[in-house]
Design brief:
There is one protein chain. By secondary structure, the protein is of the alpha+beta class. The protein has one domain (about 5-65). The protein has one helix at about 35-45; strands spanning about 5-10, 15-20, 30, 50-55, 60-65. The protein has a five-stranded mixed sheet with strand order 3-2-1-4-5, covered by helices on one side. Strand 1 and strand 2 (about 15-20) form a beta hairpin. It starts with a strand and ends in a 13-residue tail after the last strand.
């Protein structure tokens, strides 16, 4: 399975970053979280991995899975 995609906030330059798990550098930087989520969702969908969205305090806010999930969540919000 591939590496998950994370959307995180960078306090130093006040940008939202899209980062693949295991990478030090961001795949892309954005001014708004919405733009970063949109880009991260495209990357996650193309690679069939999970998108993990963090808030400004770096806590996980939401997850969205695009791969083959053998144990799908019970809630059907997505």
């Amino acid at each position: 399975m591939g590496k998950n995609v994370h959307v995180t906030y960078r306090k130093g330059d006040e940008k939202w970053a899209v980062v693949r798990e295991g990478n030090n550098r961001a795949s892309s930087l954005h001014n708004t979280q919405w733009e970063a989520i949109d880009t991260g969702r495209d990357i996650a969908r193309n690679n069939r991995v999970e998108l993990v969205i963090h808030d400004q305090q770096n806590r996980i806010r939401d997850k969205d899975s695009f791969g083959n999930d053998p144990y799908p969540p019970r809630d059907r919000k997505h």
